[in-house]
Amino acid sequence: MLTDFQAAKIPNLFNMFDSNRSGTMEQDDIVRIIDGCAAQRGWANSSPEYLEFYDTFYGLWIGITTLADKNQDDLIQLDEFLSFFDGLMQDSENYDMVVNGISQAVFKTFDLDDDGKLSLAEYEGFYQTIGLESGLAQSVYGKLDLNSDGSISVDELTQLVDQFFRSEDPNAPGNEFFGPVN
Fold it and tell me: Is 95 a member of any domain?
């Protein structure tokens, strides 16, 4: 069962997916995110990079809807999303697959110069794409740079996303990966 702290953090991820801020996640939200990410990278809709990213991210949507959309209305409500993650937290194999999938997709998309690191500017692009202000990215970036080398590596990113989902420590930097916890 999700703890109160986990249940307070996961709506940030829901809000990221609910790109039109309608209060539900739907297919159009996912396509809007895919297109926003493609625009960040400069990928044309017919490019191999776009098509690969589309397949990966859309596959994540299909997986979530298959397991979370209990009333099968093709909309994911926050309570369904929380229930999905409650089950996911208890299934380590699927949890690792989803967390690594999210981490890899974010990293691959926003590492614009392909140097294996996320700079502050690249992280700001991530925040802008998910509908958060770049000023918020600036305020948390230093905390997310776990080894203080001026960038976020894929290993750091995976650790941060894992902290977002699993950490009960209110001071864990990963709590703010998808925006401030309210």
Answer: yes
